[in-house]
Design a protein that fits this description.
- The chain is of the alpha+beta class.
- Helices cover 21% and strands 36% of the residues.
- The chain contains 3 helices and 11 strands.
- A hairpin with a 2-residue loop joins strand 9 and strand 10 (170-179).
- Mean pLDDT is 80; it is low at 1-13 and 15-52.
Length: 200
């Protein structure tokens, strides 16, 4: 199974599991992948960790890219239109082997962030070799969100940067990975997508 297909399967499985979960937790839940050797680190908890107003997508847009707003089943966002960038369904394939998966699931509320993140961590740790990640809670344009930064190695070292955005009764997952050798090129692309996301 290709990495792109594997990540799509992981994301879809996580969305399904989270959607079926009846247990509700806030982002202050432990967020870890219980029993896994490669947990997603918990989001900050406690009164001293005020992340509720922290905008998560802060990297400036990558210079030299031309952006166009594109409608998706879950809303819209801006994508690169330069040569070398292709939209296949809801997957974006870009330069330097950068791949972005865009998924959504209805019926997920902000108070399910903790349980969703826990399931996400378990599935990634199971299916992405050597997966390690850390989650950060905050907002995207005022909506509750989580940014997840990670790594894995399936023979090639990759870095990941992902956003889970909870808005209008759904969660939207923007999941991106790129070979570690090109890691510096990832934040400016995925952060611009995240900043321009509108959820319907």
């Amino acid at each position: 199974m290709s990495r792109a297909r594997a990540v799509v399967w992981i994301t879809c499985s996580c969305l399904a599991v989270a959607g079926c979960s009846k247990k509700k937790e806030g982002a202050e839940g432990d967020g870890s992948a219980a029993g896994s050797a490669a947990p997603v680190a918990p989001v900050a908890s406690g009164a001293a960790a005020d992340t509720s107003a922290k905008e998560l997508a802060f990297e400036p847009a990558t210079a030299g890219l031309t952006w166009k707003r594109v409608e998706m089943p879950f809303g819209s966002l801006e994508l690169p239109t330069n040569p070398g960038w292709v939209l296949l369904g809801t997957d974006v394939h870009g330069e330097d082997d950068l791949v972005i998966m865009l998924q959504s699931q209805d019926g997920i509320s902000p108070d399910q962030q903790g349980s969703y993140l826990k399931q996400y961590g378990k599935l990634q740790a199971r299916d992405a070799h050597g997966y390690r990640a850390k989650a950060h809670a905050g907002t995207l344009r005022g909506d509750p969100a989580i940014r997840i930064e990670g790594t894995f190695d399936n023979g090639t070292k990759y870095v990941t940067r992902e956003y889970l955005v909870f808005a209008n009764g759904k969660v939207v997952a923007l999941s991106a990975h790129i070979p570690a050798i090109n890691a510096a090129k990832l934040p400016g692309v995925i952060d611009h997508l995240a900043r321009t996301l509108t959820v319907k």
